TrEMBL record:
A GO term for molecular function: symporter activity
Protein name per UniProt: Sodium:dicarboxylate symporter
Keywords: Cell membrane, Membrane, Symport, Transmembrane, Transmembrane helix, Transport
The keyword Cell wall biogenesis/degradation is assigned to this record: no
Lineage: Archaea, Methanobacteriati, Methanobacteriota, Stenosarchaea group, Halobacteria
Chain ranges passing through the membrane: 9-29, 41-63, 109-128, 157-177, 189-212, 278-299, 306-327
CC terms in the record's Gene Ontology section: plasma membrane
UniProt subcellular location: Cell membrane
GO biological process: carboxylic acid transport
Coarse class of the protein's main subcellular location: membrane
Domain of life (superkingdom): Archaea
Length: 401
């Protein structure tokens, strides 16, 4: 228990960086969502990414409510903010800040996300309307360059915080076992199983059955065979961004998708499509509520879904970036941030599963959008070796652009 202050310092460092990293990473993501890219293909990609992420969060919350990870372990000193739960109408209005600066000072995460997205999209629209060499265009490009630089600086600071996290996590886990004993092992196991089951259901039901079998009409087995290199890489290096070259290679050579689709959808997916991460944020929120002796109302769970959905847009595709985003989700519903330090010790293992889920989602959405836009050859690559039952559903390749 004497080591607790070291763990508390780690939690404070996480709190320190959450608002800057939200602002920089979300603005960086909006740069990729320029009107030029948001045509027919871009709109389909973005909508499918948002839809699969929302389903993933709902899947995580549903499995969590059934398994109740963390039940049976109670911490004495938790910072749960008790009080009346605002109505759904109030929650919606609270998303729009009366004063963005005040929202930042008060840590109103949803309001910060809303204003940042609106401001970023506004800059992309103005940039598309003005002359290429105008002062306004140059100014906006400069702002985006500063944002990119700021995001890189924040990633470096996150790296430093996570390096200190080796000590911080050790201290928090030592204090945890000193307070609650061996029952913490059961809580960790239930958390891990909840995530594994939710990811299994997301991949099997959403990606393979609904998207690949239903929307594309091809063999789920062939699809998995076509993306196996990307999945193995994601499991190994825990980074959606670092896996991107392998994902693009699989899309091109194995899935036979044209570059005009995967060249846009996969880099964008590495930025905004974090199904596994968003799912995990919802699961951790239920876990935190259980060990804090609190219960989440329907409105609070809907708030978690919305917050996790918006936060996933700006989550960096680097190992354990979700630990930083958890701060925003837990803060939004008033749950103890100490939980972040408690689960950081097993996060490297769980992060591998989340990254694999993210990559599977990127590839599934890319495949269905390619099918909708006649940008996939379903007679070659992995599809050529598909079982005979799928042969009648294949279509002829389109001519190269």
């Amino acid at each position: 228990m004497e080591l607790q202050p070291i763990g508390d310092l780690f939690v404070r460092l996480l709190e320190m960086i959450i608002i800057p990293i939200i602002i920089f990473t979300l603005l960086m993501a909006t740069r990729e969502l320029s009107p030029k890219n948001l045509g027919r293909i871009g709109g389909q990609v973005v909508l499918l990414y948002l839809a699969t992420t929302a389903v993933a969060i709902g899947m995580g919350l549903g499995v969590s409510n059934l398994i109740d990870p963390g039940t049976g372990m109670t911490l004495e000193q938790t910072d749960v903010q008790a009080g009346q739960t605002p109505s759904l109408t109030d929650q919606v209005f609270n998303i729009v800040p009366e004063n963005p600066i005040t929202a930042m000072a008060e840590g109103n995460i949803l309001a910060i996300i809303f204003f940042t997205l609106v401001f970023g999209l506004g800059m992309t629209m103005v940039r598309a309307e003005v002359e290429p060499d105008s002062a306004v265009r140059n100014g906006i490009d400069t702002i985006f360059d500063v944002v990119d630089a700021g995001a890189e600086v924040m990633f470096k600071i996150v790296w430093g915080v996570m390096e200190f996290g080796v000590l911080g996590v050790f201290a928090l886990m030592a204090a945890l076992f000193g307070e609650v004993g061996a029952q913490a092992i059961g809580a960790y196991f239930s958390l891990s199983m909840t995530l594994a089951i939710a990811i299994g259901l997301q991949i099997a039901l959403v990606y393979l059955l609904v998207i690949i079998r239903g929307a594309v009409g091809v063999s789920p087995v062939a699809f998995l065979r076509g993306i196996k290199e990307a999945l193995i890489t994601a499991l190994s290096i825990r980074s959606s961004t670092a896996t991107l070259p392998i994902s693009m290679s699989d899309a091109d050579e194995n899935l036979q998708i044209k570059e005009r689709v995967y060249g846009f959808s996969l880099p964008l997916g590495a930025t905004i499509n974090m199904d596994g991460t968003a799912m995990y944020l919802g699961i951790v929120a239920v876990f935190a509520a259980n060990i804090a002796g609190a219960s989440l109302t329907l409105v609070e769970q809907l708030t978690i879904l919305l917050t996790a959905l918006l936060m996933s847009i700006g989550t960096a595709g680097v190992p354990s970036a979700s630990l930083v985003m958890m701060t925003a989700v837990l803060t939004q519903v008033g749950l103890p941030l100490e939980v972040i330090g408690m689960i950081a010790g097993i996060d490297p293992l769980l992060d591998r599963l989340r990254t694999m889920n993210n990559i599977a989602g990127d590839m599934a959405v890319t495949t269905v959008v390619a099918k909708w836009n006649d940008a996939i050859d379903l007679t070659s690559g992995v599809w050529a070796d598909a079982p005979a039952e799928f042969s009648e559903e294949t279509v002829s390749a389109t001519n190269d652009d």
